[in-house]
User: Which sequence fits this backbone?
């Protein structure tokens, strides 16, 4: 698992943990309670995140809090372990709290959209909500981010009901979460290569394309100088702004799938979680069947090879 910290902007670095990034907000050597963690990666990432934090901020340096851009499994995988070990509060948008306090599962993923192995396998990803209990707290109204002076949160729904991005006006730095990403996250090859490219939110986990389009346009209007995203390498300068402006202007062609469960009708959610979801696209059953059959074939071949070796 790569553990090299990539600079995004002043006092902001990104750590790739498997297929997803976490971000550390705070200057080197900030010490105990002198920094903030944004997102917590995949399950099993806690040790790598703690080790990286110790190298950057000091041995045994705990964050003042954890901020979640949203609660999908690849962004909250280590949050329970880290929040307990660090005795740290976890902040998220109020509309995200049902998925962080055990009240609701997210709308189901759509494995037919986006193409690529990671999209096709999305029906296997964890779907149950986590329960942080009283550690989960709503971000304050007005946009302030606890213990992150100079930053404000922006509600950027679409990929998740309570998805937020973080913005620092002083140097035009953006933490975008999955509102947009800088790799084609649906493709395992693209994720492995990490070639920078501005892309829409991961399609298989996006249940409201109208809201997602509005969020991308709002972030493009900020004209950020630097951005760290949930997936892909950090981007800066003209390359970032051109890519984001192009995505905003051509969102339907570049990001919205041609078909899929949520393309015509979004999932309906409220403060309690999921209210309703549209029925699956007929292609979804076929896609799941093909992946299951392929996995079964691989397993049978492995068993056959094992039997021949005996």
Assistant:
């Amino acid at each position: 698992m790569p553990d090299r910290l990539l600079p995004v902007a002043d006092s902001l670095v990104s750590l790739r943990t498997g297929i997803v990034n976490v971000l550390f907000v705070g200057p080197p050597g900030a010490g105990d309670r002198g920094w903030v963690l944004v997102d917590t990666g995949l399950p099993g990432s806690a040790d790598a995140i703690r080790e990286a934090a110790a190298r950057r901020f000091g041995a045994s340096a705990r964050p003042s809090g954890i901020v979640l851009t949203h609660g999908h499994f690849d962004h909250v995988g280590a949050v329970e372990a880290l929040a307990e070990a660090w005795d740290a509060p976890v902040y998220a948008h109020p509309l995200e709290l049902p998925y962080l306090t055990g009240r609701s599962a997210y709308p189901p993923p759509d494995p037919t959209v986006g193409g690529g192995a990671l999209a096709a396998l999305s029906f296997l990803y964890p779907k149950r909500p986590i329960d942080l209990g009283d550690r989960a707290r709503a971000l304050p109204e007005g946009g302030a981010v606890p213990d992150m002076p100079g930053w404000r949160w922006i509600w950027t729904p679409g990929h998740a009901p309570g998805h937020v991005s973080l913005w620092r006006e002083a140097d035009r730095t953006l933490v975008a979460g999955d509102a947009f990403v800088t790799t084609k996250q649906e493709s395992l090859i693209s994720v492995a290569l990490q070639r920078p490219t501005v892309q829409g939110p991961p399609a298989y986990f996006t249940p409201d394309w109208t809201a997602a389009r509005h969020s991308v346009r709002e972030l493009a209007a900020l004209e950020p100088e630097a951005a760290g995203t949930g997936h892909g390498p950090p981007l800066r300068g003209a390359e970032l702004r051109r890519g984001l402006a192009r995505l905003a202007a051509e969102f339907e062609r570049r990001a919205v799938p041609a078909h899929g469960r949520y393309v015509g009708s979004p999932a309906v959610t409220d403060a309690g979680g999921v209210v309703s979801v549209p029925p699956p696209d007929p292609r979804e059953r076929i896609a799941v069947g093909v992946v299951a059959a392929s996995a079964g074939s691989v397993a049978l071949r492995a068993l056959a090879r094992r039997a021949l070796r005996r």
About this structure: The chain has one domain: 5-276.
